[in-house]
Design a protein that fits this description.
The chain is of the alpha+beta class. The protein is 16% helix and 40% strand. It contains 2 helices and 9 strands. The radius of gyration is 16 Å and the shape is globular. The chain starts with 14 loop residues before the first strand and ends with a strand.
Length: 130
């Protein structure tokens, strides 16, 4: 991947905000179920996680127009079948099972979709070598 900045100098995604109804419940989901490392909490009701160098911020909606599910976050995992099994056993609600999305020259792209504790749609993705 080329990290050379173009345009205004953007080189990576720095932070993603996820809207929650209950920050403590969501914090437990992202820490205990997904195994993300909690970086810190800050008032009023914010929680920050590290996801391979990208910060994930959980927050309650500041205004009514922000009170909706987040964009889909795709978490990359090395073994989608194993990750699916582990999360399903821990009570995570899946929308489907891992399935092939596309055959690429060097790998196959697999995905499965699930819901967090707040109803946000999330996904696991895995690039499986041929």
């Amino acid at each position: 991947m080329n990290a050379t900045a173009t345009g205004i100098g953007i080189t990576r995604l720095g932070q993603i905000a996820v809207t929650t109804k209950d920050v403590e419940r969501a914090t437990a989901f992202y820490e205990d179920k997904l195994g993300l490392r909690l970086l810190f909490k800050a008032p009023p009701g914010l929680a920050f996680f590290d996801c391979a160098g990208v910060r994930l911020m959980l927050q309650r909606p500041e205004k009514p127009e922000f009170d909706h599910p987040s964009s889909v976050l795709y978490f990359s995992v090395p073994d989608i079948q194993a990750a699916y099994g582990t999360l399903k056993e821990s009570g995570v609600r899946f929308e489907d099972e891992p399935h092939l999305i596309a055959r690429m020259p060097a790998h196959d792209l697999w995905m499965t979709f699930f819901r967090d504790s707040e109803g946000n749609l999330l996904a696991l993705m895995s690039e499986v070598s041929h």
